[in-house]
């Protein structure tokens, strides 16, 4: 409770670590999480520190492990993440682990490179078989001809694509075949036509299914094309255009027999590549499965080793360079554990001279340490998101455990939805030891980390839902309504009561669409609903008006209580830090300002609820009008809520007006008065001069130890405010 109410009491310790045992000692300290290191080499560049080489080695190991994890995930091999965190590896095993990882990386890269090369060859051969199969119907060839020169024959009955016809034309015919991306086929054909001036013929057909690109690995639709051209110059143009459009060009056979031989050779090579590729993948998977068994623990070990060397870079060496000196912040309650950790590290390293520590006095502000557990961690994170409190301040997370879920429930306020949220959070709490929850995706992990917050939010929402009588936006009639409709009929009352009160009869019911219940009629209002809002309000036409008025007043009351409670917590801080003048110049004026205005508003709300009943509700004044009139001083008498209201309100306004200048000018003028060396209750600060001005929180730690020893009879209040202003040092004769 003490640690949760205020942060831990910290002290500054100096560690003397032998060079041979420093790594093991810091590893033991890191496993226990006892200290926070101070950087003693702030003026030294990160690249000029002692252990920069070891840090680079750890970064190289991290790069190798990241590559291994990437390959393991690519192979869809699950990582067996352990539940425990392994310690940092001993120095004797670091070089061995580095050699193993480098050897494993080189082997994986070689196997992966061979696999990719085989896979690329397989895809190219597969594409070649598709080109041969589809382009077979493009051109008819019966035999190989050599070009001859003769007169042009009649071409009326011959096809231009017939090779015998081209032979009679006396031209040398060439072919280019391959694959092109579906989206580039149309532009490719137009470019060929314009570049070759019609001296080429492009024939293409779409493949039945998509194929994987050997270069990019993308699965896309392809077109098989066959380009017929004549002339060597046009052939060079065609090949350049194919290169520009990233076409996959393959040689086209001259005869049917050559096509058949190529097809048989391709089938044989594809079968061999499939066999070799499967064996390569099996071997690669075996290597990755073996690496996956220890990659998780090695990642954690390398991170811890890197953190150790980062901390060693913050240490300074003594004059002999045989001992490292470190300064750490440590909770006073953990000093014994700190000594045990140093002894354990020295014992593990086998050093003859153990490392040791001693505490040193300091005037610096220690860091804030608040111990948390799995229940309070979520609430502490909410508070830290707004700002970490100063050292030894009151920790608001203790009160946030109740206020945050309750204020959420005030806004949420639904029994059904709150119960669903409560069951969801309860399911997370009961299965909090399941490893998949803590290692799930970010959104699920966020819900899991805030499971206790959701649990209390759902529980308080169930309570406020009962108060609002709201379950999935519907009212519940659990105890029976306190309103009696039948009592409004005139037949149930005497003639005298019928003349005094507006009762119902058959004519009123027939001619009025809206009927009003009068609580002043005997028997109509039989008493308040036992818990929450009466369900009959769900049928009323003024339901929203009533509920909005109720919730607005309740929000004002809760908000004022919340703000007042925060100011009161500030008083505890001022008392703890011995700054009583902050109570008189800050806290009390804040309370007076808040209570004289908003506290008085809360008083009027409760006063109206308690004094006015159903019989006198028609003459009850409006709180809003009365609150506005408090600042306007109306000339006419409005009656008010109670006798003497005008005098009370004027007194409250006077107190409020007086507290404003105190808030704005009180503390600054007081500190200025101290800064100019004024006497404090007849005691002056002669012999002292200001050397450094610091924050109030840091100065408050000094207490009264910096005041002149000759003024020990000074009152405690003067000693506190003197320490608030500045650090002082004696400048008189020694």
Automatic annotation (TrEMBL):
Q: Which domain of life is it from?
A: Eukaryota
Subcellular localization: Membrane
UniProt entry keywords in alphabetical sequence: Coiled coil, Hydrogen ion transport, Ion transport, Membrane, Transmembrane, Transmembrane helix, Transport
Which GO terms fall under biological process for this protein? vacuolar acidification
Molecular function terms, GO-annotated: ATPase binding; proton-transporting ATPase activity, rotational mechanism
What sections of the protein cross the membrane?
Answer: 406-430, 451-468, 554-572, 584-607, 651-674
Any coiled-coil regions, as ranges: 94-128
GO CC terms for this protein?
plasma membrane; vacuolar proton-transporting V-type ATPase, V0 domain
Look up and give the membrane topology term: Multi-pass membrane protein
What family does the Swiss-Prot or TrEMBL record give for this protein?
Belongs to the V-ATPase 116 kDa subunit family.
* Role, per record: Essential component of the vacuolar proton pump (V-ATPase), a multimeric enzyme that catalyzes the translocation of protons across the membranes. Required for assembly and activity of the V-ATPase.
Spell out the protein name for this chain.
V-type proton ATPase subunit a
Task: Name its species.
Answer: Tursiops truncatus (Atlantic bottle-nosed dolphin)
């Amino acid at each position: 409770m003490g640690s949760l109410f205020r942060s831990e009491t910290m002290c500054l310790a100096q560690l003397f670590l032998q060079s041979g045992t420093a790594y093991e000692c810091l590893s033991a300290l890191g496993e226990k999480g006892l200290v926070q290191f101070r950087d003693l080499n702030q003026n030294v560049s990160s690249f000029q520190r002692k252990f920069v080489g070891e840090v680079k080695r750890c970064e190289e190991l991290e790069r190798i492990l990241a590559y291994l994890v990437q390959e393991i995930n690519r192979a869809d091999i699950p990582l067996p993440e352990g539940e425990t965190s392994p310690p940092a590896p001993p120095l004797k095993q670091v070089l061995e682990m580095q050699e193993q990882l480098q050897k494993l990386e080189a082997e994986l890269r070689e196997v992966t490179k061979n696999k990719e090369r085989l896979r690329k060859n397989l895809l190219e051969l597969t594409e070649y078989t598709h080109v041969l199969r589809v382009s077979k119907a493009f051109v008819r060839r019966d035999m190989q001809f050599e070009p001859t020169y003769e007169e042009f024959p009649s071409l009326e009955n011959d096809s231009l694509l017939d090779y015998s016809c081209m032979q009679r034309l006396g031209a040398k015919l060439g072919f280019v075949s391959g694959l092109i991306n579906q989206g580039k086929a149309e532009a490719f054909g137009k470019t060929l036509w314009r570049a070759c001036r019609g001296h080429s013929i492009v024939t293409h057909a779409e493949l039945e299914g998509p194929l994987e690109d050997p270069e990019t690995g993308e699965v896309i639709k392809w077109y098989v094309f066959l380009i017929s051209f004549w002339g060597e110059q046009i052939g060079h143009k065609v090949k350049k255009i194919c290169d520009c459009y990233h076409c996959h060009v393959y040689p086209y056979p001259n005869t049917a027999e050559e096509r058949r031989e190529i097809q048989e050779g391709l089938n044989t090579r594809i079968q061999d590549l499939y066999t070799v590729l499967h064996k390569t993948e099996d071997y690669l998977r075996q290597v990755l499965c073996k690496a996956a068994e220890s990659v998780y623990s090695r990642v954690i070990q390398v991170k811890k080793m890197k953190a150790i060397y980062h901390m060693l870079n913050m240490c300074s060496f003594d004059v002999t360079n045989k001992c490292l000196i470190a300064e750490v912040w440590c909770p006073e309650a953990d000093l014994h554990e700190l000594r045990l950790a140093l002894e354990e590290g020295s014992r593990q390293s086998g050093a003859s001279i153990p490392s040791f520590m001693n505490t040193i006095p300091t005037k610096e502000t220690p860091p804030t340490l608040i111990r948390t557990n799995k229940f309070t961690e979520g609430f502490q994170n909410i508070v830290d998101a707004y700002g970490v409190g100063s050292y030894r301040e009151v920790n608001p997370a203790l009160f946030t455990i109740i206020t945050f879920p309750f204020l959420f429930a005030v806004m949420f306020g639904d029994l059904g939805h709150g119960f669903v949220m409560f069951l969801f959070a309860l399911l997370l709490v009961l299965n909090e030891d399941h490893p998949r929850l803590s290692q799930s995706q970010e959104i699920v992990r966020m819900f899991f980390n805030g499971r206790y917050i959701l649990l209390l939010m759902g529980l308080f929402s169930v309570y406020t839902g009962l108060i609002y009588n709201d379950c999935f936006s519907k009212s519940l009639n659990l105890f029976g309504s306190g309103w009696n409709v039948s009592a409004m009929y005139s037949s149930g009352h005497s003639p005298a009561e019928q003349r005094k009160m507006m009762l119902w009869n058959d004519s009123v019911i027939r001619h009025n669409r809206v009927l009003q219940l009068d609580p002043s009629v005997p028997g109509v209002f039989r008493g308040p609903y036992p818990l929450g809002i009466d369900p009959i309000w769900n049928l009323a036409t003024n339901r929203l008006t009533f509920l909005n008025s109720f919730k607005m007043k309740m929000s004002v009351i809760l908000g004022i209580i919340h703000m007042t409670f925060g100011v009161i917590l500030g008083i505890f801080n001022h008392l703890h830090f011995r700054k009583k003048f902050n109570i008189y110049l800050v806290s009390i004026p804040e309370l007076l300002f808040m209570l004289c205005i908003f506290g008085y508003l809360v008083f009027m709300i409760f006063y109206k609820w308690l004094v006015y009943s159903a019989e006198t509700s028609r003459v009850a004044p409006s709180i809003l009008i009365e609150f506005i009139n408090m600042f306007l001083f109306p000339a006419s008498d409005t009656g008010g809520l109670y006798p003497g209201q005008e005098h009370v309100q004027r007194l409250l306004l006077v107190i409020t007006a007086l507290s404003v200048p105190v808030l704005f000018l009180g503390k600054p003028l007081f500190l200025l008065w101290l800064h100019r060396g004024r006497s404090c209750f007849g005691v002056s600060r002669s012999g002292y001069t200001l050397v450094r001005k610091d924050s109030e929180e840091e100065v408050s730690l000094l207490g009264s130890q910096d005041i002149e020893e000759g003024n020990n009879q000074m009152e405690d209040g003067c000693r506190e405010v003197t320490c608030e202003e500045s650090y002082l040092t004696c400048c008189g004769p020694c």
